[in-house]
Inverse folding.
């Protein structure tokens, strides 16, 4: 993707500022690099990457690039392992984030007449408060529920006539199943679902859309780079537009770090163009995607990345074969009778790896026949033998946040 002149100008400005902060994160990171010598996109692409390990080492506020007097809020990554990543925000950062989030809602056709039901968590996590800020800037009605308490969620959804649901795909599925179980579908007024935080397969997408009777939109973001709201799919469901006046994106080979040709899958790398509190230069997200060429039929003049296919750290290796969750979802997508929900258990017994794939089966589907088909298709497409186990709809756990689908018990 060719860098635009205004992006290069903003990056140069960021680099000058960040390397002039005594003892600052990037002054140390870029020690020995002549910033003035960066005159082209190719020069910029020679700068070292940043990654989450760097951010953890900077705990708690080593990333901060402005005085304390300018910091109005902090957020932290939602990860449950390792040292937390703390991201400080200025007043302008908060405003910029709200601008991007409003843009996301408008891209999904949300207006100030909508009632937006927000289920992602509040607090140190960036999700809930980001969704709310965008709603309020748009002028729509925010219903700031947060996660959990499904009884109250559904009561508010019915009584307040919520028209837009913001959720993880796991919680959207849980709510859809509960609405169907209680037989209250005719009391639900939802029209749109804005889904983020975790990747989800096409089968799960179709199921949620059908059960809720909504059109679904993907929203993208990460705490290190504002939070959700830096990218959004449109009505045409052909990837996600990202706001290139606030972020610059590259896609690199996860192993070599080299830029891959446009259209090829690689790891998304983000540089913030305007962020003040904690700017990031060439930050490796671990998210796997590709640039989508050409103009979008929706008319938006913003570039697109494809819907995420997974993460570099999601990959598992079983019997010498690299497997991504997206591959499992693609296998199940093409098998009649297999639902969207699955869970993988990997064990090491008697000197060999055993991969058990639990799959929920549609009502009326014969379990033994389904298991036989899954075993054959998985062996054919992925290249290894597995132990398939068909279970009933609802037997696998549901989550109000992100679902854990792969459990590796070998280590």
């Amino acid at each position: 993707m060719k860098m635009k002149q205004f992006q290069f100008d903003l990056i140069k400005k960021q680099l000058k500022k960040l390397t002039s902060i005594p003892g600052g994160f990037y002054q140390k990171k870029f020690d020995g690099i002549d910033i003035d010598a960066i005159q082209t996109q190719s020069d910029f692409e020679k700068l070292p990457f940043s990654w989450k390990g760097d951010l953890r080492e900077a705990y708690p506020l080593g990333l901060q690039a402005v005085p304390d007097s300018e910091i109005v809020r902090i957020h932290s990554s939602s990860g449950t392992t390792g040292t937390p990543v703390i991201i400080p925000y200025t007043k302008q950062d908060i405003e910029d984030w709200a601008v991007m989030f409003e843009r996301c809602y408008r891209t999904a056709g949300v207006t100030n007449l909508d009632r937006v039901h927000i289920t992602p968590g509040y607090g140190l996590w960036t999700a809930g408060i980001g969704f709310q800020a965008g709603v309020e800037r748009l002028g729509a009605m925010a219903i700031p529920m947060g996660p959990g308490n499904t009884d109250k969620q559904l009561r508010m959804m019915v009584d307040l006539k919520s028209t837009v649901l913001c959720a993880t795909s796991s919680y959207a599925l849980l709510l859809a199943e509960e609405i169907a179980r209680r037989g209250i579908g005719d009391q639900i007024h939802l029209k749109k679902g804005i889904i983020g935080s975790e990747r989800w397969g096409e089968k799960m997408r179709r199921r949620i859309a059908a059960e809720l009777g909504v059109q679904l939109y993907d929203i993208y973001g990460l705490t290190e780079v504002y939070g959700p709201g830096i990218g959004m799919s449109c009505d045409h469901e052909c990837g996600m537009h990202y706001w290139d006046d606030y972020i610059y994106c590259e896609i690199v080979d996860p192993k070599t770090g080299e830029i891959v040709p446009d259209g090829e899958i690689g790891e998304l790398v983000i540089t913030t163009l305007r962020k003040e509190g904690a700017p990031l230069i060439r930050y490796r997200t671990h998210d796997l995607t590709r640039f989508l060429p050409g103009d979008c039929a929706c008319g938006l003049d913003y570039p697109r990345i494809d819907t995420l296919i997974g993460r570099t750290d999601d990959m598992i290796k079983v019997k010498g074969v690299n497997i991504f969750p997206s591959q499992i979802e693609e296998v199940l997508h093409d098998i009649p009778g297999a639902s969207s929900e699955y869970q993988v258990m990997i064990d090491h017994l008697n000197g060999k790896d055993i991969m058990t794939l639990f799959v929920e089966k549609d009502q009326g589907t014969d379990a033994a026949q389904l298991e036989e088909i899954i075993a054959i298709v998985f062996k054919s497409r992925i290249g290894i033998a597995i132990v398939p186990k068909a279970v009933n709809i609802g037997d696998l756990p549901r989550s109000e946040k992100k679902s854990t689908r792969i459990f590796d018990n070998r280590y």
In short: Residues 255 and 267 are 9 Å apart (CA to CA). The two ends are 40 Å apart (CA to CA). The chain has two domains: 90-312, 315-408.
